[in-house]
């Protein structure tokens, strides 16, 4: 009987069925999340980043989600996992998913020429004798089409309408024959969106809403944010200039004819549902908007880079990073940068959304895979030692001197100290071994070379708080 119940759950709530038990309560996972938080806070502070929202997906669970900084600096609105951001080119993966749904329904084939579904499709070839451009070429960026439609929207923030794009297309030039080389193209995926609309018999945005977003329960996601205002949308900011100013960008951007390539708005909690779907198997139906076999097909490399370190799937990009194969996509619109990446093997996914042109999400994604992902599969703790005294929490905090910062955190294994701005290897943090009241000794690690074995003393004030952190003869003072 219990198997019948589980089967019913999997059909009605596929995102909940067959979930792995959450490791979030495990101390070794919580320790890494605290280290990650300290590192993110340091990056945000020293780079002057406005806001960031991040989420970690494990199997079918949003394991951890948090906002950092401000979604709106002028109004002091904090960034949270519910803050909406323009996810820009991550939209391409939704358009590719729609194409795959129609393919699985027998309504098109990936190797169909584009002109079969878009009779108005015409473009000037630079080279004679090339093969016709197909749907597969559009999704894998080997169509040879220009990167952009022939409008200066990255300069003016004014995007062409669909009619503008169709009318201007015959004046565009195909720079290379299809399958000659990989060339990223927003225009190509905008055309893929037009194919979705033509084959489905309804606008691209309505199709995505009804066939992908609604079944996944992505209630905060908009396929085309053309209606203003968008509630809970982060304010867009430009890069930090040499004088440390940061200009505002156009939050109310409308991508119009380029919407299938860049138009969507979402948040961490909704994108977690989308990432979780990438890990599921089985036939399409309900919240499984695409069969597991077709999902895997999208993740496979269809075009391999010359260095063999990455390539292009169907809509998704694939790369090798620290012995992992990561699948995902990034996005960038004025004042908004985003990235989703996931390891299909270990079923770990990361979502990072930022609201600044220099808010590169890549380092944050990579740090999660470096710091947190390796411990998610652990079943037991590394040591059976007794937990450290809770009274040691009084030592926690950020300490600063003219030479740099030092972060002290109480983990499940004891106190540690490290430079939060350069935490690249969790095995290189320094552990503090107790020596007496408020006294410790640095043990191991590479924090500020030469500190191993040095005495570490927390000087306390009359209010019971730390007034100075003394390492050897020198000291730092608390920041918080």
Overview of the molecule:
The structure is a single chain. The chain has helices spanning 2-12, 27-47, 91-104, 114-117, 135-140, 153-156, 162-168, 186-200, 204-216, 259-262, 268-277, 292-299, 362-371, and strands at residues 51-58, 61-72, 77-78, 85-86, 124-125, 173-174, 265-266, 303-304, 310-312, 317-321, 324-333, 336-343, 348-354, 397-401, 404-411, 414-418, 430-436, 439-443, 455-460, 466-471, 474-478. By secondary structure, the protein is an alpha+beta fold. It has three domains: 23-92 and 202-375, 3-Layer(aba) Sandwich (Beta-lactamase), CATH 3.40.710; 99-185, no CATH class; 390-478, no CATH class. α2 runs antiparallel to α13 (362-371) and α3 (91-104) runs parallel beside α8. The protein starts with a helix and ends with a strand.
Q: Measured on Cα atoms, how large is the radius of gyration?
A: 25 Å
Q: State the share of residues found in helices, binned by percent.
A: 25-40%
CATH class of the largest domain: Alpha Beta
Q: Give the averaged pLDDT, no decimals.
A: 91
List the domain count as a whole number.
3
CATH superfamily of the largest domain: DD-peptidase/beta-lactamase superfamily
Q: Which strand order do you get reading across the main beta sheet?
A: 3-2-1-13-12-11-10-9-8
The helix-and-strand class reads: alpha+beta
The main sheet comes to:
9 strands, antiparallel
The N- to C-terminal Cα distance equals 55 Å
Number of contiguous helices: 13
Name given to the CATH architecture of the largest domain = 3-Layer(aba) Sandwich
CATH topology of the largest domain: Beta-lactamase
Shape: elongated
Number of strand elements? 21
Strand content: 15-25%
> Uncertain runs with pLDDT below 50, 5 residues or more?
1-21
